[in-house]
From TrEMBL:
Protein name: LRAD1 protein
Main location (coarse class): membrane
UniProt keywords, alphabetically: Disulfide bond, Membrane, Repeat, Transmembrane, Transmembrane helix
Annotated organism of origin: Circaetus pectoralis
Family annotation (Pfam families): Ldl_recept_a (PF00057), LDLRAD1_C (PF25241)
Keyword Lipoprotein annotated: no
PANTHER family, sorted: LOW-DENSITY LIPOPROTEIN RECEPTOR-RELATED (PTHR24270)
Subcellular location: Endomembrane system; Membrane
Length: 137
């Protein structure tokens, strides 16, 4: 039987529990060719040999386009990781509204979906279709 390695990493993001049963690394650090667990179990062949099939389901989020997937901790992170925003706005993603570090609008940049980072507010560059990031935010 395989060990349940589900854990909550920082910001309550989905994580992977290392063999030491103490270290919880974010899902997206599994199979990234960098050993984040002391014994390197996050990079083992049986885990990383056939992505995403070889990964436990809780580490994977399937985009609307079944050809694409992202790590579970990339769901609702404000970034358009799927390419079609299904990881941010899809019914499966079920994301909460933009958090306090985000400004809600229709972004002009493809990398964002329904919010832009507040640090981009009033920087002299349009990030929202309505320009609200330059005038209201």
């Amino acid at each position: 039987a395989s060990v349940n390695r589900f854990c909550a990493a920082s910001n309550n993001r989905t994580g992977f529990l290392c063999d030491d049963r103490a270290t919880c690394i974010p899902a997206s650090q599994v199979c990234d060719r960098v050993s984040n667990c002391r014994s390197g179990e996050d990079e083992q062949e049986k885990l990383c040999g056939d992505l995403p099939r070889s990964l436990p389901g809780y580490l994977v989020f399937r985009c609307s386009n079944p050809a694409y997937w992202v790590y579970a901790d990339q769901r609702c992170n404000g970034m358009n990781d799927c390419g079609d925003c299904s990881d941010e706005m899809g019914s499966l993603a079920a994301c909460p509204p933009c958090g306090s570090e985000w400004w809600s609008c229709s972004p002009v940049l493809y990398e964002y979906c329904s919010c832009v980072p507040r640090r981009l507010c009033r920087d002299g560059v349009q990030h929202c279709l309505s320009w609200s990031d330059e005038y209201i935010c």
